[in-house]
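Contributing new records

If you add data, match the layout below exactly. Sequence lines come first and carry their own label; structure lines follow with theirs. Keep one chain per record. Anything else will be rejected by the validation script.
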Amino acid sequence: MKKEVRSAVIAGNWKMNKTPAETTQLINEMKPLVKDADCKVVLCVPFVDIDAAVKAAEGSNIEIGAENCHFKSSGAYTGEVSAEMLVACGVKYVVIGHSERRQYFGETDQTVNLRTKAALDAGLTAIVCVGETLEQRELGYTETLLKFQTKMALTNVSAEQLKNVIIAYEPVWAIGTGVTATAEQADEGNGYVRAAIAEAYGADVAETVTVQYGGSMNAKNADELLSMVNVDGGLIGGASLKAEDFSVIVKAASK
């Protein structure tokens, strides 16, 4: 991390977990554990939990995000939620293009770009996910793919808007598998993302962009991962559902 030039951000991605009542309970458990954090603390929760999460986090240093948004502000898109709706609910962040969205719900690099722009236009901070599969890594395409996905996601995003973008490098082979990239692999992947931003916006701008690592970051490996120069935080899955584990990661990012 290089906190002197960019923000460290630990964001929980709850995925399809927790009822509103469970959300309130978990956030109340987390608040005293993360109140002294020297990093940004974000919880991205299911749509049905947003109201409970915003109310539970009120007055604390925890900010609330969503896990997806549509690229249109309204229309015949059954089951979708617009960025403007999220803002109206008190959301400040939104995850865009998670590999599970790409795998199960047909997200493409083009729709990721559209959703990113919609989120930014609505005033949200977009946490944009990129990452390669195991096959792509074994074929030697990691750098090419990460640079392509990053540049595609940021197409027509201005340097000013980029201030509200976080990129999360999530190797698909390390999400929910218990397999974690080594600290060196995480730093390398995040470095490819930063290099892509430098190619598009210049090195000085790239140095200011927060690039998280996601992919089975947990209480045991957070210290090592977060010690790497290009790892500016984490997008945390399973460990964000346990107050104590999540707080250990937040503490690691606060050093």
